[in-house]
Amino acid sequence: MTAPGQQQPVVELSGITVEFPGVRALDAVDFRLFPGEVHALMGENGAGKSTLIAVLTGTCTPVAGTVRIAGERRRFSGVADSRAAGIATVFQETQLSPNLSVAENVMLGHERRGLFGIDWRRTRADAAEALGRLGLDDLDPKTPVGMLSPAQKQLVALARSVVDQPDVLVLDEPTSSLDQAEVATLMRVLRNLRERGVAILFVSHFLEQAFAISDRMTVLRGGRLIGENATRDLDRAELISQMLGKDIESLRALKSERKSHHYAFDGMPALHALDIGRRGEMGGTDVEVQKGEIVGFAGLRGSGRTELASLLSGAARADSGEVWVEGERVDLRSPSVALHHRIAMSTENRRTQGIIGDLTARENILLSLQALRGWSRPLSAGEAGALIDAYVEGLHLDPVDLDRPVKMLSGGAQQKVLLARALAVRPHVLILDEPTRGIDIAAKLDIQRRVSELAAGGVAVVFISSELEEVVRVSDRIIVLKDREKIGELSNGPGVTVDTVVEMIAADIDPRLQ
User: Fold this and answer.
1) pTM surpassing 0.85?
2) How far is the CA of 193 from the CAs of 34, 101, 168, 385, in angstroms?
3) What is the number of alpha carbons within 13 Å of residue 496 lying toward its C-beta?
4) φ and ψ at 369, to 5 degrees?
């Protein structure tokens, strides 16, 4: 990559200020993006990252400042203007049509025309060429997008964005739903684009991915520019300090708290599953969680983490094995039965299986408790108010957000609402599936700290995360899964690291595949 000082920026924002009613979302922000570089835009939720992207994509007009593309001053009145200026965007939620084929999605708006309408043979050939330029020759252009994995959909969205051969590619949380192997594929594609001179703006909450792929980093906080650095000159502690506006002692303190915490073993597990399984989804598995213990589920995507959690929470019904809750054998035939036994779960997919988007945050928090009590015994205003106040304080929820539709809140706020809903039933067993996915560091620390406090108070916790470092940091014991089977357990301690877990997964080779 050519050093930034030796070339003209392809994107240069100067003094960009954006205001919404009562909020200054960006405050005189400067930003530069050069050809042939990957530039990571970092910051918490609410830092201004999405607003800066909106300025670049023409969906938001600044009240002050200038936008220059390839040295020319521009004023975008919409997405079409931005695309005409050579800027393409791939959002976290891929905007694809599942009923159309890969070729139809990639070439949407760019179909080849013939005498009798669209020439599908040439259109599919162009789609195959676009995929091939990204090293995606293995994707069949005729395949319906609805049959693709999340990673493949992300790559199809990327292929569609580069059909116009843009000078600038904006990626908004492109890896949030991908596993490690899928992330590696995406990173390879991005490096190929960088080598061809494309300027890439990379927005992600995953720090390690940002360090691995980016050449430079810009940090925003509270709508203001905090710093711009070459990635090689910025260590992780300094980046986190810039993002949070304070040092990282809170991270160190959390780790110390977990390592010094000892759960109370009294011989009676809060939850004990024996050979629990479901045909075609999860092999027979033993799980034991003590009161006050945090048990992490670790494994790659498809390892069975969510499937096992679903069996333990009643979201899926087991067809083998048995479950004991505090010494009583129970049939977890539904989530409502699990709730009655004080087993609560916060689901992995908060948007489609967790929050009720059109209800307020307040209404979402109260849902499970009201369902447990029965709709003939509505919560009084006093009970509801006291409960909400407790979680506003305990989870650092913004009171302003309580009466807004929960779909309008940030990812971190939505995740806290789901956690509050689960805690409202005063669970004895709490199952958290990806509770910190796609949220900023401050919200992540809040949730991790609260989980530790719950365990210290006697709650049995199952903690699932695709970030192995996070599982190792918060867990007392780790159950390792692979290919929808349990392959081992680790008692956590100073000698246990991410490498320990990875080595266990890698070493467990099915002899049938050798």
Assistant:
1) no
2) 13, 24, 10, 53
3) 24
4) -65, -40
Q: How far is 403 from 2, CA to CA, in rounded Å?
A: 50
Rounded mean pLDDT, 476-480: 94
pLDDT > 70 fraction of the chain, expressed in percent and rounded = 89
Provide the token pair at 15. Answer: 């003094």
Residues facing 461 on adjacent strands: 294, 430
Number of separate domains in the chain:
3
- Name the range with the highest mean pLDDT among 2-6, 79-83, 148-152, 253-257: 79-83
CA 473, 477, 478: angle at the middle one, nearest 5?
80
DSSP 3-state of 231: helix
Q: Calculate mean pLDDT across residues 391-420.
A: 79
Rounded to an integer, the average pLDDT of 77-106 is 84
DSSP lists the bridge partners of residue 491 as 477
Range of the domain at 263: 250-342+427-514
Task: Tell me the two tokens of residue 160.
Answer: 């569609």
Is there a single domain that holds both residue 10 and residue 103? yes
Q: Are 314 and 338 in contact (CB under 8 A)?
A: yes
Are 415 and 480 within one domain? no
> In this predicted structure, what is the pLDDT of residue 256?
47
User: Model confidence at 247, in pLDDT bands (50, 70, 90)?
Assistant: low
Q: What is the pLDDT of residue 271?
A: 94
Of residues 231 and 500, the one with the higher pLDDT is 231
**Which DSSP letter does residue 360 get?**
B
Is-contact 298 481, C-beta < 8 A? yes
Considering the domain architecture, whether residues 118 and 184 belong to the same structural domain is answered as yes
Contact predicate 413/401, CB 8 Å: yes
Q: Mark whether 362 and 507 lie in a shared domain.
A: no
The mean of the pLDDT values for the chain is: 83
Same domain assignment for residues 202 and 270: no
Do the beta carbons of residue 211 and residue 229 sit within 8 Å? no
The H-or-E segment that residue 283 falls in is strand 282-289
Nearest to 502 by CA among 514, 491, 487: 487
Classify strands 460-464 and 38-42 as parallel, antiparallel or unpaired. unpaired
Which one-letter DSSP state was computed for residue 173?
S
Count of alpha carbons within 13 angstroms of residue 50, beta-carbon side: 10
Q: Please check the confidence at residue 196 and state whether its pLDDT lies above 50.
A: yes
pLDDT of residue 356: 81
* Cβ contact 481:306 at 8 Å: no
Q: Could you tell me which of 259, 313, 261, 329 has the C-alpha nearest to residue 291?
A: 261
